[in-house]
From TrEMBL:
InterPro entries, per database record: ABATE, ABATE_dom_sf, Znf_CGNR
Pfam entry (one): zf-CGNR
Organism of derivation: Micromonospora cathayae
PANTHER family for the chain: BLL6575 PROTEIN (PTHR35525)
Protein's name according to its UniProt entry: CGNR zinc finger domain-containing protein
SUPFAM superfamilies, per the entry: Jann2411-like (SSF160904)
Domain of life, source organism: Bacteria
Residue span, Zinc finger CGNR domain: 160-200
Length: 200
């Protein structure tokens, strides 16, 4: 099973090992012909709920964004278009580091997030970059851009693999160099069943 119910919305299971990869996995079947059934982020409401599901935004922020999106449909649709552009570019540059056009797209969104972020001290005394609440409907986009930049700037990016399962292509971190499938229980099992059928 590749999905779970979150606040009444179907959401892809989190199995990639990094929020940036989870963003890429909101599209199903990267190597297959495009179609609306492949899209998990079907509306701004889906995006907001997914952002909490992926740990990028807290519940209170999402609860504030959802009615705001209803009141500003044009702005919400613009954010949805931009998040999909960021997602595609991140996917492409992760699988092909030489793709400069994809990198420039990710960098543009990341620089926008960096220009918006504020350095704040938390209760433990540690400072961290945070996105201000007045960023409004852009918050999920900026949070995704931040995590995409973080991923591209760490050695983890070299461990990213794409699942070879039929109609999949989801990305994941292969920390031990032995992982082949996004999920052994789903794509791996399907392949085993198909191989068994082929042999018999």
């Amino acid at each position: 099973m590749h999905w779970v119910d979150v606040d009444g919305y179907p959401m892809p299971v989190l199995l990639a090992g990094h929020p940036g990869l989870e963003l890429c996995n909101t599209w199903a079947g990267w190597s297959e012909p495009p179609g609306p059934h492949r899209e998990w982020l079907r509306s701004y409401q889906h995006l907001a709920v997914w952002s909490r599901h992926a740990g990028l935004l807290d519940a209170a922020t999402v609860a504030r964004l959802r009615p705001a999106a209803t009141g500003e449909p044009a702005a919400a649709e613009r954010v949805l278009t931009e998040i999909r552009e960021l997602r595609t570019a991140l996917h492409d540059v992760l699988l092909d580091p030489a793709n400069r056009a994809a990198f420039r797209t990710v960098a543009g969104y990341a620089e926008r997030a960096a220009a918006t972020a504020r350095l704040r001290v938390d209760a433990t005394g540690l400072a961290r970059w945070t996105l201000p609440g007045d960023a409004g409907l852009d918050l999920p986009l900026l949070a995704c851009a931040q995590t995409a930049a973080e991923l591209l700037g760490t050695p983890t990016r070299a461990l990213v693999r794409a699942c070879p399962g039929d109609d999949c292509g989801w990305l994941f971190v292969d920390t031990r160099g032995r992982r082949r499938w996004c999920s052994m229980a789903v794509c791996g099992n399907r392949a085993k069943v198909r191989a068994y059928a082929d042999r018999h």
